[in-house]
Amino acid sequence: MILDQALAILNGTIGDYLDKTKNGLATDMGFFEDGARLRLDRPTLEAHLGTASRVVVFVHGIMSTESIWRFADGTDYGENLERDFGFASLYLRYNTGRPIRDNGEALACLLDSFAENAPNTVKEIVLVGYSMGGLVVRSACAFATVNQLGWLARIRRILYVGTPHGGAPAERVGRVVASVLGRIPDPYTRTLSEVGNFRSQGIKDLGDGDVSALLPGVEHCLIAGHVSDWFGDNVVPVDSATYGLRGVVAGPSAPRVRILPRLSHVDLAHHADVYKEIRDFLEQTS
Amino acid sequence: MSNHLREVRGVQKLAEEAVHHGSRIIEGIQKDTAKRTFDVLNRVPIVAPASRLVQTVFDASVSLSHTGIRFVNKAVHRTIDVALDVVDAVDAKSGSSDANRLASDDAGMR
Questions:
Q1: pTM for this structure?
Q2: Element (H, E) at A88
Q3: In this prediction, does ipTM exceed 0.90?
């Protein structure tokens, strides 16, 4: 558990380098259950999914693993959804230091394998992305659209929890600081700048977010935390997490936007208020 | 290769690369820092020839020290690589003999 967490932090920090140098510490993307990789063959999936017709896929954020979803009592959103609606859950684990686009493509391919081997009873796949995970989900959908992957037809609902659609300002500040340090003609500050720029492409991608259109023909739910007006949930500003839709008068098919007061970025991954929003959204759009 | 061994190899590789890149960075800093002093001395005509000579010797000795560090680093990690290869081979052998033993036990029971 602690080793997994340490590897997640290492992957988030320099995961693109680990991947490029084929280092054994780089995390291979996969679905995990109780810390073990879930094989995507028919018998394993039949045993894992049972007779569930709806599957919810959880995609964590940077420098974390699927353990980020755990509540203090050991449950998580997936277990609660199974109890309340009969959903089956899949928890993704991946190298968060790789470019978001690469992780999106890998997720699209993984979902393709899943859809190919999943029992025929599975009619719907719901995607839930937390923080960077939301951008990975969007990237996967964009890749699946271009490549006409079959699983996309089973997507009707997507939830984004604390996702920096409009980018994360902390990363942009880091970019400016590294650039300024690099321009100072001093070997020490230049070294500091180089060390700063060594951060992974995954982190760098968070600075820009993804302002392209959300996947059409699908119900979207955007959940943001609000601790302060300036910093949103302390990491992602509310405008970024709500795709700029805060306060916009929306029609019936517009994305659902929820801003939860006093919830920090980390809280969003495992909080009863967030679960209530997820449950309401799934109930009202079923 | 087991997951555990893959991770050990990963840590070992990362440590090797950290020392290698760290040594390159420190070498650059040491030369750049010294260059400032030498740049001043090189402008003084009376000491410039000697200063240039000292700078060349200094740069060469810094490079030599760091090349030595990187060489030893590489040698140590190659040795560890060989040791891990042996562990891997022993693991694979004991794994296959275990499997054979289980298979023969199974056949015996039948």
A1: 0.90
A2: strand A88-93
A3: no
